[in-house]
Amino acid sequence: MVRACGIAHAVIDLSPAHELLYEQVLRAFGPEAWGEEAARLADGNTRARLRMTALYAVANLTGRMVVGTDNAAEWYTGYFTKYGDGGVDAVPLVHLTKGEVRELARFLGVPERVITKAPSAGLWAGQTDEGEMGITYDAIDRYLRGLEVSEREERAIETLHRNTEHKRRLAAAPPKFER
Fold first, then answer.
1. Rounded CA separation 163/166 (Å)
2. Which residues pair with 90 in a beta bridge?
3. At a CB cut-off of 8 Å and minimum separation 6, what does 36 contact?
4. What does pTM read for this prediction?
5. How many CB atoms lie within 10 A of CB 110?
6. Are 94 and 117 in contact (CB under 8 A)?
7. How far from chain centre, in Å, is Cα 138?
8. d(CA 129, CA 131)
9. Residue 67 phi/psi, 5° resolution?
10. pLDDT tens column, 68-114
């Protein structure tokens, strides 16, 4: 996409940094302490946070901002990594449903294969957003637009929303001490 749009870019291989960091975490705590699923999630979130660290390093060096890609469905369900892909300076797509983002992409001439590709953060082989969330973007979009969804879909969406409330808030702080 960056080549097609003529956008300056660089490829930064974060694999060595990730391997070094995550190896140290596993050495200190071991994946068996929490199980395979928790270890995979911790690994994926570590990758997302390393990406954000690299993006902010580039932004600092070049005097730029970091712009996020979260849409309304991802924001509402909390489908982003806190201080990872959710740690940005601006989120211009946050009020657009996934369907509206696809429409905008078509309008802008994004290749159809990119638009219809199964959304994935690419954190591990075979990972997809919808597979991880357990619900489709279409169902979330319908729910956000006030259209009918099944009871199961509504419960799933509201559970995701409730369980991720902390991601949509600033860091908690104790009350201010007054003299």
1. 8
2. 67
3. none
4. 0.86
5. 16
6. no
7. 18
8. 6
9. -105, 130
10. 999 999 999 999 999 999 999 999 999 999 999 999 999 998 889 88
